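Quick one, tokens below. Sequence please?
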């Protein structure tokens, strides 16, 4: 995600994202942060990327992906700072973030988006391609590279640390 675009986003803005996002939940976050702590190489270049807190269901016949709604974001809060330091620029999920995460978002000029909870089947229609890139052993918690088109988002925390939660 481009720094200039991030800099222009304000809380409450509606965004329709087209491009690449990576699904990543608790266990994948833990592995990535452990890898960074050991000075290892992450399974994808995280610089400028967006992570979607999501564990999609298996794709039904004829579909790219199954239901892929957001999971609760604050479960990933403990992992955010090292990933932002490594170059992560965006996160997508549901729910509020801790003060520590909001400060880290401001420090690293990143952004946190919300997407629609309870609408996983609908959100799957915006996914044009899904490829497992890491941690296949984690099943739905493995990391998928999603190509999305007009994926609906709302800016919940902007790069100045403004939050729709107050």
């Amino acid at each position: 995600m481009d720094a200039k675009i991030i800099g222009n986003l304000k809380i409450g803005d509606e965004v329709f994202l087209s491009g690449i996002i990576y699904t990543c939940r608790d266990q994948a976050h833990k592995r990535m942060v452990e890898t960074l702590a050991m000075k290892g190489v992450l399974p994808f270049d995280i610089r400028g990327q967006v992570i979607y807190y999501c564990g999609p269901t298996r794709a039904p016949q004829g579909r790219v992906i199954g239901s892929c709604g957001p999971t609760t974001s604050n479960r990933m809060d403990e992992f955010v700072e090292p990933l932002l330091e490594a170059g992560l620029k965006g996160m997508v999920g549901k729910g509020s973030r801790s003060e520590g995460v909001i400060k880290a978002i401001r420090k690293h000029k990143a952004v946190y988006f919300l997407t629609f909870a309870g609408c996983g089947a609908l959100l799957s229609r915006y996914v044009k391609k899904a490829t497992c890139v890491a941690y296949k052993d984690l099943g739905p918690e493995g990391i998928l590279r999603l190509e999305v088109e007009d994926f609906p988002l709302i800016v919940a925390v902007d790069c100045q640390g403004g939050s729709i939660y107050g």
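The radius of gyration is 15 Å. The chain has five helices and six strands.
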